[in-house]
Amino acid sequence: MFISNAYAAGAAGGGDSTTALIMNLAPIVLVFLVMYFLLIRPQQQARKRHLEMITALKKNDIIVTSGGLIGKVRSIADDEVRVELSPNVEVRVVRGTIAEVRSKTDPAPANDSKPD
Q1: What pairs with residue 1 in β-bridges?
Q2: Ranges 6-10, 36-40, 103-107: which has the least confidence
Q3: pLDDT tens per residue across span 75-95
Q4: pLDDT reported for residue 3
């Protein structure tokens, strides 16, 4: 009396429960895969590029901080950078707040000796 006809027919039919389980979990797995490839993976790649950028930072690079300040790198410590904003104005900036490197300095030539 209280059992619906659809439930009673499904129970009597003896359907394969493994197939039903897979069909119920397939949309959840599909949503997770879409979220991973559209959101999580690109964010991980962007973070990796940012870490590589701030690791490769050198003296005399022109940088932009996340606050919008533009300056030239004067010295680099473990987790902070001294940035010259204008002549005789230097500030300390946390390395992680550097948003962009505008112009990089050229690496020193491998052979610095002068020709005789």
Answers
A1: none
A2: 6-10
A3: 999 899 999 999 999 999 999
A4: 63
CATH code where residue 99 lies: 2.30.30
Tokens of 57: 């930072």
Distance (Å, whole) CA 7 – CA 24: 16
The pLDDT value recorded for residue 6 is 57
In this structure, how many other beta carbons lie within 10 angstroms of the beta carbon of residue 63?
Answer: 23
96 and 64 in one domain?
Answer: yes
Q: Which residues of 29-50 are buried (b: 16+ CB within 10 A; e: fewer)?
A: eeeeeeeeeeeeeeeeeeeeee
Q: How confident is the model at residue 101 (pLDDT cuts 50, 70, 90)?
A: very high
20: exposed, middle or buried (Cβ count in 10 Å: 0-12, 13-18, 19+): exposed
